[in-house]
């Protein structure tokens, strides 16, 4: 008989194991087969539970030597259905990385190699805004998290969930070890933990995912101890995988919704302000339905794809000054100082349900006249029904007249945009409006997605293209931090890949150079996308600000490019892209060269190759 093993699982590390290589290989194969049924059961929990409608907790019995702590961690993570795990490989997560490769077969999740931890997290940021679920990012303890911190902050400000795991070594500490890993980013994450046992890991991992995915969604951090990953779990040990049950987004109180509906019906000139209101196509459709029911104007800050860009009810922010009621949908920074005197400000926002206090991403207190703390997308269906019920027939003609007025204003705005776009149309360097227009002519009949910041190419994409599907753009960065667009766009393109969409990145030159190594990741993992550079060879907004400051001080404006130019030497973006496996052309400076280059690049992308066009552009 075997002698009983009375040691705790966490006391049995890989260094102490007596299992030889041949036994380990045999045991791993047997364990993988034995757990196939377990994986199917976990999947059933996520999609609906047992036949009786009650999901069961999973119990994983260790049937042979050779199963490691990191293998069990992957059993726990299976039910989160991570399609990808981004990482910059490192020693303190070697156990987890090996388990993904051999225990999971590098499938669900598939490892995505990032050459910088900020890339690993920012890719998750972009991926979520297309796919609607997070990917996992595996980070190297203290040093990796310090690299990743900017991307974590952007995701926090943009209310995007990224599931971040940190390899950490406490048993034999070194310069990368840290007692409280989450402390570095606790001011801009929603939750963190550092599990000490496998049971603790299982509970905390499921909690972390639940917290991240509950409105308002935000990043979470889970520190994963190196010793815990590498321990050998004794035969006969039974470990439990807690069931994950997604939380329903909080909808507004029915009485409050009814009161708000009455305010909207009574308003003479209502305007909707939308920021991060839509989480999906359903949210976009609900905003359109409410706006059309009321014939209300809509101001979209394009932090999400909230509203069609060519809808006649879409308005410029100046319309706030004419409204007698503004309904802010997940738009907590809309100040009542932007409204006319006596106008009412109402709000539906999840912002106050959770926030932090150190970083002032929330701005000043909004001072709404009426506020509902809830998820807008979850609340809009009941609000629409109440408005429809309360709207009297006698107001229908005035409602239609109001819509006609908004449509007239919209048409004037569009004509002004077109007239402004035509200025410098044939100039060299390229007019940014022309770059956007030429590109639109080539993609408008394709299934496309703008995966960079939605205000790219001096906002001309938003002004000239027809955005009407939720995946048509992914919004902004949240933090307005430089360096977001390149990796986030590749994360979004990764999500678009299985859908066969043409991913477009309108890429600023300064932002590009923060994380140029991102290009290698796209080429290595066969992520097709088209990057079109907005290369004005400068941080041009800063030049304008400094020039304005010099003018106010009656000083030399001509010197204000110093410190803000990206020139002498000019960066060869096409050469840089080619060196990392991309198809690339440029620099492209003459309008006659633009359209043929766009066509060649799109052909490359549609064949599965990432492509870059270095278009040299006029200042903003």
CATH architecture designation of the largest domain: 3-Layer(aba) Sandwich
- The top-level CATH class of the largest domain is Alpha Beta
Total number of distinct structural domains: 3
- Structural class comes to alpha/beta
Could you name the ranges where pLDDT drops below 50 across 5 or more consecutive residues?
1-56
Query: Strand content of the residues, in percent?
Result: 5-15%
Shape: globular
Short account of what is shown:
The chain has 20 helices and 18 strands. The chain is of the alpha/beta class.
What do these coordinates show?
The structure is a single chain. The protein is of the alpha/beta class. The chain folds into three domains: 9-241, Rossmann fold (3-Layer(aba) Sandwich); 254-355 and 363-412, TPP-binding domain (Rossmann fold), CATH 3.40.50; 422-535 and 571-615, Rossmann fold (3-Layer(aba) Sandwich), CATH 3.40.50. Helix content is 39%, strand content 14%. It has helices at residues 21-34, 36-47, 69-78, 94-103, 117-131, 141-157, 198-213, 226-230, 254-266, 281-294, 376-390, 396-421, 432-443, 460-464, 485-497, 509-512, 518-524, 540-552, 573-579, 591-606, and strands at residues 58-61, 84-87, 110-113, 136-140, 163-168, 191-193, 220-225, 238-241, 270-274, 297-300, 325-329, 344-349, 370-373, 448-450, 502-508, 530-534, 583-588, 611-615. The strands form four sheets. It has a six-stranded parallel beta sheet, with helices on both faces. Helix 9 crosses helix 11. The radius of gyration is 27 Å and the shape is globular. The termini are far apart. Mean pLDDT is 90; it is low at 1-56.
């Amino acid at each position: 008989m075997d002698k009983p093993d009375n040691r705790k699982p966490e006391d049995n590390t890989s260094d102490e194991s007596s299992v030889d290589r041949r036994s380990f290989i045999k045991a791993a194969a047997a364990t993988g087969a034995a757990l196939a049924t377990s994986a199917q059961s976990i999947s059933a929990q996520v999609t609906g539970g047992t036949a009786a409608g009650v999901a069961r907790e999973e119990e994983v019995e260790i049937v042979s030597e050779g199963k490691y702590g990191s293998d069990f961690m992957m059993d726990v993570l299976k039910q989160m259905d991570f399609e990808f795990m981004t990482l910059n490989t490192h020693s303190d997560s070697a156990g987890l990385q090996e388990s993904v490769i051999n225990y999971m077969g590098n499938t669900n999740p598939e490892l995505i190699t990032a050459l910088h931890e900020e890339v690993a997290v920012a890719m998750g940021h972009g991926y979520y805004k297309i796919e609607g679920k997070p990917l996992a990012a595996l980070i190297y303890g203290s040093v990796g998290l310090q690299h990743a911190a900017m991307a974590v902050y952007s995701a926090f400000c943009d209310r995007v969930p990224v599931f971040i795991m940190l390899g950490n070594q406490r048993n034999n500490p070194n310069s990368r070890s840290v007692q409280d890993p989450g402390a570095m980013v606790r001011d801009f994450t929603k939750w963190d933990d550092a599990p000490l046992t496998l049971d603790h890991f299982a509970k905390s991992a499921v909690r972390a995912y639940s917290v991240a995915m509950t409105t308002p969604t935000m990043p979470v951090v889970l520190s994963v101890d190196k010793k815990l990953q590498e321990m050998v779990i004794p035969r006969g040990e039974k470990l439990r995988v807690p069931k994950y049950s997604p939380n329903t987004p909080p909808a507004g109180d029915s009485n409050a919704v009814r009161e708000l509906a009455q305010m909207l019906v009574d308003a003479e000139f209502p305007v909707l302000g939308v920021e991060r209101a839509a989480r999906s196509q359903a949210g976009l459709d609900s905003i359109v339905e409410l706006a059309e029911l009321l014939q209300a104007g809509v101001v979209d800050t394009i932090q999400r794809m909230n509203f069609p860009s060519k809808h006649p009810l879409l308005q410029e922010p100046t319309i706030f000054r004419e409204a007698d009621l503004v309904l802010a949908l997940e738009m907590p920074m809309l100040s009542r100082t932007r409204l006319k005197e006596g106008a009412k400000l109402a709000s539906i926002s999840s912002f106050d349900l959770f926030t932090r206090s150190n970083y002032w991403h929330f701005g000043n207190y909004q001072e709404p006249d009426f506020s509902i703390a809830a998820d807008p997308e979850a609340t809009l269906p009941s609000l629409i029904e109440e408005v429809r019920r309360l709207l009297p027939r006698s107001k229908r003609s005035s409602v239609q007249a109001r819509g006609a007025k908004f449509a007239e204003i919209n048409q004037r705005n569009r004509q002004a945009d077109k007239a402004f776009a035509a200025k410098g149309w044939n100039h060299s360097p390229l007019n940014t409006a022309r770059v956007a227009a030429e590109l639109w002519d080539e993609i408008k009949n394709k299934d496309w997605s703008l995966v960079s910041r939605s205000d790219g190419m001096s906002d001309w994409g938003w002004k000239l293209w027809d955005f009407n599907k939720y995946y048509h753009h992914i919004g902004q960065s949240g933090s307005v931090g430089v360096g977001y667009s390149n990796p986030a766009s590749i994360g979004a393109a990764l999500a678009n890949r299985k859908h066969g969409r043409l991913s477009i990145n309108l890429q600023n030159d300064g932002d590009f150079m923060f994380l140029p190594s991102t290009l290698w990741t796209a080429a290595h993992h066969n992520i097709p996308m088209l990057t079109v550079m907005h290369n004005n060879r400068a941080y041009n907004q800063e030049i304008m600000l400094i020039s304005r400051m010099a003018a106010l001080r009656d000083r030399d404006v001509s010197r204000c490019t110093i410190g803000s130019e990206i020139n002498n030497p000019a960066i060869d973006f096409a050469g840089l892209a080619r060196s990392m496996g991309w198809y690339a052309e440029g620099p492209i400076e003459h309008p006659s060269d633009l359209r043929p280059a766009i066509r060649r690049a799109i052909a490359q992308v549609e064949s599965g190759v990432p492509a870059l066009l270095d278009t040299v552009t006029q200042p903003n």
